[in-house]
């Protein structure tokens, strides 16, 4: 196949690779210019990509699920579409529709003609779409090689305000099944097109779990800006690799979560610049935030002037930091260090035992939280704690309880995180009751159970689990084992040298 975007690759004497781009849309040009690329595009375009109506026809021919649509040429046609699809009705311009431009909603038949006028009239080339009852908007950046091989980036959630992309959350907070479905539709859509490079596939998630294709942008896209900081290969690098016929890079995320916030012009002119700079100042005080300023000469309301990406260990964490950044009076930000381990126990009477897990985590400098959560006395608290822990960035839960110790098992049933159970000796049965309550879990819901009252081992096991993706932590664990061994060797030597009687009565 031919690669529509690049035919001539040249390397100058300094080794700079020039990619001659032949087919490019206006948004790509803007994007490349923002990245400091000098663009001199040729005039030719690909119809299927430039004309959104034809693009939709193309996708429907490939049985890719999308909202119903039809072309309109006059007011009568628009009214017929309204009768067929109902209101609100989405009216779109076939070309040059992006960043909120080229879309208008008619809420009733009376609003049809003003919506059409707002789009520049029927001569612009319009089509209508049945309103998609979406609960979330998702997007997938898909990279396609010159040899047609395809790689997909993680599914993200895009949040729009007045039709303009406002926030992107990566990965999207949806089930694994929905992520797979979204990736599948994105993959099929890009497979049905021609060309090499990255494509942004915008999708609707409906209330009944359907994924509908909204639009495909054949270029790096706002929904992929986060990849610069959060993925092993940014969408820009990937785009160049793809058009240049070089091997594609790894599209997976190197940080568990990222949030991207578009800096939109809040006011015209100088006062808009002042407001944007205040926001940037706040963004710069967030430890893992990166500011991108596009250096556009003119500030206009709602114009994309730059963006901020915050990466972190969970969506909950980066969302909190973004929230703080957007509060104008805010001067302090939630620390980048969120607890990695949750230590929970059924009662404060368990604390003398459970404190040992906290001591170990302190020793290894692992951030943690300690809470009282009872499966029987505060079941609602237990439910919300366990079901939100993952999103908040907790990676391991240590749960201790005595007697009818149901806390670890119930928590394990409510979270995909590993749960370590500590049987606490709390009753007349000497802890055997809690040991059996914790260890005898049904198949499918595992709890790693330590010995009665041995919260120390729970702490150590949590450190080992976290060490899987933290080489420093694993090295410290190895040192701890070395120190423990040396302690024993020293004692053995002393016993050998002093004899047992003076060892016991020094
Ligand atoms: N199983 C259970 C449910 N809610 C609390 N417990 C456990 O009951 C024991 C006695 O709690 P308390 O001292 O508050 O009476 C504690 O070990 C506590 O984990």
TrEMBL record:
GO biological process: 'de novo' IMP biosynthetic process
Keywords: ATP-binding, Decarboxylase, Lyase, Nucleotide-binding, Purine biosynthesis
PROSITE patterns in alphabetical order: ATP_GRASP
GO MF term set: ATP binding; metal ion binding; phosphoribosylaminoimidazole carboxylase activity
SMART domains to which the protein is assigned, alphabetical: AIRC
Domain spans labelled ATP-grasp: 56-244
Catalytic activity field: 5-amino-1-(5-phospho-D-ribosyl)imidazole-4-carboxylate + H(+) = 5-amino-1-(5-phospho-beta-D-ribosyl)imidazole + CO2
EC number from the UniProt entry: 4.1.1.21
Entry similarity comment: In the C-terminal section; belongs to the AIR carboxylase family. Class I subfamily.
Pfam families: AIRC, ATP-grasp, PurK_C
Pathways involved: Purine metabolism; IMP biosynthesis via de novo pathway; 5-amino-1-(5-phospho-D-ribosyl)imidazole-4-carboxylate from 5-amino-1-(5-phospho-D-ribosyl)imidazole (carboxylase route): step 1/1
GO cellular component, as recorded: chloroplast
Protein's organism: Carya illinoinensis
Protein name: phosphoribosylaminoimidazole carboxylase
